[in-house]
Amino acid sequence: NGSPRRFHMARCVLQVRVVAKTYRELVAWQLAFEFCGMVHALIASGPVTKRRRYCEQLDDSSESVARNIAEGFGRYNPAEFSRYLSIARGSLDESDSALRSGVAGKYFPAESVAPIILVGARCQSAIYSLQAYLRKAADDPQFAPRHRRRPRKQS
Questions:
Q1: pLDDT value at residue 137
Q2: Cβ partners under 8 Å of residue 31, min gap 6
Q3: pLDDT in tens, 123-134
Q4: How far lies 154's CA from each of 42, 58, 96, 113, in Å?
Q5: Contact (CB, 8 A) for 126 and 31
Q6: Three-class SS of residue 3?
């Protein structure tokens, strides 16, 4: 039956959010970890292996995405976490650019890079969604900075 009450209850259920207990539960981190693994596999063989510096930079930027998401999560402060997510987004953009230049430089075929770029785009979207959530959470009083009171000087 399509009663207004049933619709309201269904809408309420859809709005329930599950809080992650560890960074590994975050979809953004899971996608970043997958992205990094795909990059590792890509640069492990082929003509690109002769470009050691390029491989090291691509490896570092791809690993940085998951590392920054994990570190930000550990801060337990929405504003700080969001800042680390911005750094992760920058590393993701750097990796994306390096992958595209790798195709242009004929280090690897576009068909090998396309699925990696797709996972990177999904990760980027998950990071944006997480940052939007954190902007709302920043207004929550439980995350307000707590100021310590200084002991009064005795005269």
A1: 80
A2: 119, 122, 123, 126
A3: 999 999 999 999
A4: 67, 60, 61, 69
A5: yes
A6: coil
Amino acid letter for position 40: H
Q: How confident is the model at residue 54 (pLDDT cuts 50, 70, 90)?
A: very high
The DSSP symbol for 58 reads H
How sure is the predictor about 8, in pLDDT bands with cuts at 50, 70 and 90?
very low
List Cα–Cα distances, 119 to 15, 21, 154, in angstroms.
Answer: 26, 24, 62
DSSP per-residue codes, 63-119: HHHHHHHHHHHHH--HHHHHHHHHHHHHHHHHHHHHHHHHHHTTSS-HHHHHHHHHH
| Residue that has been written with the tokens 């990071």 in this structure | 127
User: In this structure, what DSSP letter does residue 22 have?
Assistant: S
96 Cβ neighbours under 8 A, 6+ residues apart: 117, 120
